[in-house]
Every structure is written in C-alpha cells, then in structure tokens.
Sequence to fold (574 residues):
Amino acid sequence: MSRNTGGGTAARSTSTDAQVAGKVLPAGPVEGGKARRAPADRDDGHAGRSDRSPSDVVLPCLGLAGLLAIWALLSASGMINELLLPSPLAVIKAGIDEFANGVLVPNVAISVKRVLAGYVLAVTVGVGLGLFVGWNNRLYKTFNPVIEALRPIPPIAWVPLAILWFGLTDRAAYYIVFVGPVFPIFVTTAAAVRATGRHYVNAAQCLGADEWALLTRIILPGAMPEIFTALRVGIAMAWTCVVAAELVAAQSGLGYQMWQSRELFKSADVIFGMAMIGFLGFASNYIVVLIERRVLRWHRGAAAR
Amino acid sequence: MSDRHRAPLERTGMATPSIVVSGVTVSYADKRGGRPACRDVSFTAERGEFIGIVGSSGCGKTTLLNAIAGFVKPSSGSVVVNGVQVTRPSAAVTMVFQSYALFPWMTVEKNMMFGLRMKGLGADEAAPIIDKYLEMAGLQGTQSLYPYQLSGGMQQRVALARALAIEPQIVLMDEPFAAVDLQTREDLQDELGALTGVTRQTVLLVTHSVDEAVYLSDRVLVMGSRPGRVVGTFDVDLPRPRRREARSSPEFLAIRDAVSSELRVTATA
Fold:
C-alpha cells in the first residue's frame, strides 16, 4: 500500500522530551499582536523571512527617529527650560556619567534582580494555582471570589502594607513586583484551563491518562497560548511595579536613583532612568517572546492554518 | 499492511462477551424536557466482532458510545466490558473521534507515545510499537511532524494508530471518517478493515453511512430516534477480507438496501 507520507523532513527523535527542541525560528521585531506570524518551519523553512518587508525595519526606526527629532528641536528651540527638558545629548551624557561613576550597573542589577524574583514567583504561583483552581470546580468556586476581591487593588496600593510588613528591604520590593503580575497570570491560566477542549480530555482519558498526566500533559500545554499572553502582560507589569516599589520602598535600584536625581534637580538623569526602564522592559518582553516562540512552535503553525 | 482477515471462529466459543450493554438509558440533566437521548438500549458484542451502528442525526448514537466509553453515566442500565462494569473512562475502551482529538502540542510520535507511556512503557519499549503501528497506518516518516502539518486523512490515520497502539480491548469510533473527502474515506475504510482484521479488537463504529457500516461490519444495528433505541439488527455474512468490488455484489447491495429501508421506516415513523 503506497501513500503519500508528507514532507520527508522527519527523523526519528530519540529523546523523549525533545518536544520543544528544534530549530530556532528567525527572530524578528515583535510588537503586541504581531507575535504570531506564519509558520516558519513548514516544508522548506524559507517562509520565515519572506513575509517580512523592509518596511518592518524602516518604519519603526522612522518613528523612533521622529520622536528624538521633535525632542531635540523642542529643547534646542529654548521654548522649554533646559532644566525641565534637557536635550537628548544631555541625557546620553548623564547616562555615560552614571556608568563611569559606577552607579548605573549596580542599580540596573538590583532592579533586574527584583523583577526576576518577583516575576518568577508570580509566574510560579499564578500558573500553578490557576492550573489547579481552573481544573477543580470546587476550588474554583472557593477561590474565584477571593481573587476577584483582591484583583482590582492596584499594585501601588500594596506599597504601604509591604513596607509595614517587610520594611525598606528587598523583600518589600519582591512582594510588590509579585503582587502585580500574579493576578492576570492566575486569572488567565484558570480561564484557559476551564476552556480546555473536552475532546482532548476525553481522548487522554481513554488513552489511560490519570489526573496528574491530564493536568501536566494535556491541560497545561493546551492552556499555554493564553498563558503566554498573560506572561507578556505580566513582565510589563513587573517593571511598573519595581519602579513603584523603588520610588518609595527601597534604598537602591533604578527607581530609587531616579527619585534621588529628582531631588537634586538632575532632570537628565531622571529621563535617562526612564529610558533605561523602557529599554529593560522591552528587552525582558522580548526574552519572554523568544521563549514563547520555542514553546509554542506547534501553535504558531496550527493558528496559521 | 497484511490482508490477513478476521477469523470467523474468533466470534464464537468465547466465554465472556466483549461488551454487554443492558437497558442503557441516558438522560442529560441540562436538557429541558428530560427526554432521554437514548432509552433502554441493549446489545451484546462478541470478542473481535465489528459492529456498525447507523441512525439518523440526533438518535443518540454518540451518546451511546459516550456511555460505553464511560464519559457519561447512564441514568439506568449498565455497560459491562469483559465482565467489568464501566464506571469511568479507561484505556480498556478507547475512542477514535470525528475531530481526531490529536494533541496539537505533540508531534505524531509524542501523540503515539502518550497512551503507551500511560501504560507504563518506557521510551525504548514504546519506540518499536510506535514504528509498527505507524507503518501499518502508512505513516512512516511523520514521527516528528505536528498534527497541523498533516492532511485531514493523515490526521485520522494517526488517531487510529494512536488508539490501536495501546491495544485496547475495545475500539469505539464516532463518525471517524466524516470530515475527510470521499476518496480518502474509502481508503481509510479499507485500512481500518485491514488493521482491525490484524489486531482483532472489538469495534463499534457509529456512522451516518449505511454503505460504510455494511462494508466494514459483521453486524449492523439500526437506531431509531427520539428517544434513541435499537430498532433492527442485520448480520452481514459477506466473506472477509472484503475488497472494494464487494460493494457492488448482489449480496452486499441486498443487505445495504435492507438496512436503508429499515432506516427510512424508523425515520418516518
């Protein structure tokens, strides 16, 4: 019996957990909804770049250049006091000075550490709890009102309590960074779990899956596309939270440094701090997107079908 | 793929029947009116028997399969598989779905591996079984592809191979070929016939197609609707292995017409 067996690209994979191991897809600029593009690994692999036009690179650069130009013109025109809006060059100089003085790197490091600690904790708790609560109807009925009551409280509103609990310590910052992203991640995970296709669960059950296998190998991977959306929202929130924490509840970090610069009226340093946070937020979002692309290889293809 | 056929002797002389469905009624609590989806359905399937179940839409065929698989609990009656009452889904009774239900986040190989791992097999033990069933289903070389990279017909072959690889005692099929084109459908029918001829599992096939039911089955049950119940049983005494030409033989046509007219009578009744 002869049949077409599809692309001849298949090679027997010997590792049992090679599911995500494969070629790394070409990385491109990702903004919001553009994260899922056409499958790059289908058939011949040329599709990855062929759907990108030069305008994908040129237009974003043009936008950024425009922003800088307007800023430079405004400060050069003398319409705005230079003390309030320093020129782009002054900001860059302030950054170089901070780096040279040895204040920049330690402050970046400590902010990154806080974001990482709080975010990892939020992801662990949010996804873990969301998985169980979404899966078990009783847990859901019990926990959901609690979550819905706590969720509308903005992360910044937790700052006073965090200081009372932990003082002006790293732990206060960890807590505030944790409390922001954990809710969207939890709520999204639980909702995605509850929406898991009944037929996947049925199919797994009649292939002999127990509860644990259902949860870890069917429910969790099935919810991954939604979870990753929440993880991207969460990483941005983590940066918002760390700055909020450092402005008030810490003696170090980028936010603290900005606050200090304000008190000394060093507006160039304030703006440089803002730019740093913007850059770090962008970079960490990009890392999440890279992980997403790897983990959701199957989904990019399935979604484009 | 081997053309070895199902030995008729398989169907006789076995002590315990494979499936005993007795007086099964299923009512869905969430549906208003409370009319059961199927009522008082009883039949027995011998080991290795291939039973086709036909009936018009909404006659409770799928509900019946779901009850046999353990996905829904009958409001009364019981399903006994190899002497054990079915209370929840298990690998003893596995189902092939119309929507394939392949796990899209797993490659073909991982999909095949899933059930085998649940049986407690390690990767080394599972690999030859996976290769064997993929080869039987004509799917060599697809191991590392994701479901979305396969055509509908190939996806259904994977679903079939995945179900058969765990060597369940019973295979339930719910309109497995409804979503593929006619040509693929006939290919798949032949492959299914050959596959189950080798593996000798008990098969219940729910289908809209009388032709398909008669071609593949040892026995065809006709279900009437509202509420769903078995209204007729037809033995298909056509020799095996059956080839496509059999579809135009007078014997085949006679049985097919008999089933069709029974179906029409129940539909208008």
Observations:
- The radius of gyration of chain B is 18 Å.
- The CA atoms of residues 39 and 175 of chain B lie 21 Å apart.
